[in-house]
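Good morning N.,

You mentioned wanting to compare the apo and holo forms, so I went ahead and generated the holo version with zinc ion. This is what I fed in:
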Amino acid sequence: MNRSLQVTLVWENGSGSALLQPIWDFVRSKEALVKSQFYPVIFSFTVYMFFCLPYLALDVLCHYIPALKKYQVQPKSRPTLAMVLQCLAHTVYSHLVYILPLTVAYVYWRPINLQFEAPELHRFLLDIIACLLLFDFQYFAWHLLHHKVPWLYKTFHKMHHKYTATFVLATQYSSAWEMLSLGFFANVSPILLGCHPMTEMAVFVIHIYLSVEDHCGYDLPWSTHRLIPFGICGGPSHHDLHHEKFVSNYAPYFTHWDKLFNTLAQKKAKKP
Ligand SMILES: [Zn+2]
Ligand SMILES: [Zn+2]
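and this is what came out, ligand included:
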C-alpha cells in the first residue's frame, strides 16, 4: 500500500502512531549513534546550544536594533562577553567532568530500546504533559527546600543565583548537585510513567527548551505563557523575577504550585 495512503487510513482510524512513525523510523535508522555511550552527552550539549544560539544572537542584535529592546525583560542589564564565556566554559566543564561519565554508566545500566512501533499520538502527548507536570512538582519542592534551608542554599543553589538578571547561558550555570538533581528528575519521570523511548527523547528536548526559555531574558510573542492561556505557564518574566528577588516563583514551568503556596509574583506587564 502507498505509504501516504497508509498514513491517512491509520490516522482516520484514530491511531496517532502513523504520524510519529516516520520520525521514529528516522531515529531508528541512526541506531549506531543513538545506542552509543556518548550519545546522551552529545545530544544534551547540541540541543542546549541549538536553543541558546538564537537568544545569543538576539543579545548582539539588541545593540544595533533599538526596536528589539522592548522584548528584554531587564533592558538595563545585558550580559557581557566575560559572562557569556564563563557560563559557556562551565557548561562544557560540567558536560565533560560529570555528565559524560554518568550518562555513559546510565547507557550501560539502561540501554535504549529502539522498538519498532512509535507511540500512539494521544499517549505520546499525554505522557509529555504528565512528565512536565511531575518534573515541575519535583523541581518546585527541591527549589523551595534549597531556598528555605540556608545551608542548602549556600552550598548547592547560590551559584545559580550569581546573576540577578537572566541571560540564556545562565540556564546551566549551576552547581554539580543542582545539575544532577535536575537531570535525575527529568530522567526518572518518564521511567516512572512507563513512557515510550521516543516520548523520553521528546520530553528531554522540551525540558531543555523550557529551561532555556526561562532564562532567555526576553518576553517574546511566542513565549509559552503567551501561547498557553489562563496563566498556566510562568514564562521568562516569571523566572527572571525569581533571579531578581529570590523570594517567589519557585516552579520552573507552571504556576499552580506557587499559587498554592502563595509564592507567585508577577513582573509589571510589558506589552510585546
Ligand atoms: Zn532559586
Ligand atoms: Zn534560574
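The pocket of zinc ion (ligand 1) is lined by residues 143, 147, 157, 161, 242 (CB under 6 Å).

Happy to go through it together on a call whenever suits you.

Best,
F.
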